[in-house]
Amino acid sequence: MNKLKSVALLAAGFALPMAASRISRKVLGAGYEAVTDRPPPKNPASLSTGWKEAISWSILAGAMGGVARLLVNRAIAHTEIPATGYDEESQQEALVDNLQD
After folding, report:
1. Which residues lie closer than 8 Å to 95 by C-beta, 6 or more apart?
2. DSSP letter for each residue of the chain
3. pTM
4. Contact by Cβ (8 Å): 2, 97
5. Other CB atoms closer than 10 Å to residue 96's CB: what's the count?
6. For 32-68, how does the pLDDT look when each residue is reduced to its tens digit (9 = 90+)?
7. What is the top-level taxon of the source organism (predicted)?
8. What is the Cα 19 distance to its own chain's centre?
9. CA dihedral defined by 90, 93, 99, 101, rounded to 10 degrees?
10. What sign does the CA torsion over 33, 39, 40, 44 have?
11. What is the tens place of the pLDDT at every residue in 59-98?
């Protein structure tokens, strides 16, 4: 495997789960706004955000983002794309070895 392909696969392994988390957060934000008639809090830690709203948004956003990352990682686990989880160490070692060659 050439260096460019190794770098591209490594980047995809990082980018795909992050993109899935970001997309799920956007979808959840639209649902939150439809239900509450307010946009989701931009900063739940802000003192201007109530406890109930901050906690509920944090729990929902964290759970949805985690599930989205899990789904993507499981989908790419048996491909050339390095994913966290299944045999990550040997896949990353192989990619690093290819980069150092």
Report:
1. 6, 9, 10, 82
2. --HHHHHHHHHHHHHHHHHHHHHHHHHHHHHHHHHHSSPPPS-TTSTTS-HHHHHHHHHHHHHHHHHHHHHHHHHHTTSSS--SSTTHHHHHHHHHHHHH-
3. 0.67
4. no
5. 12
6. 999 999 999 989 999 999 999 999 999 999 999 999 9
7. Bacteria
8. 6
9. -100
10. negative
11. 999 999 999 988 988 888 777 776 554 455 666 676 677 6
Q: Are 55 and 88 in contact (CB under 8 A)?
A: no
Q: What is the length of the chain?
A: 101
AA identity, residue 71: L
Q: Domains of the chain: which residue ranges?
A: 3-100
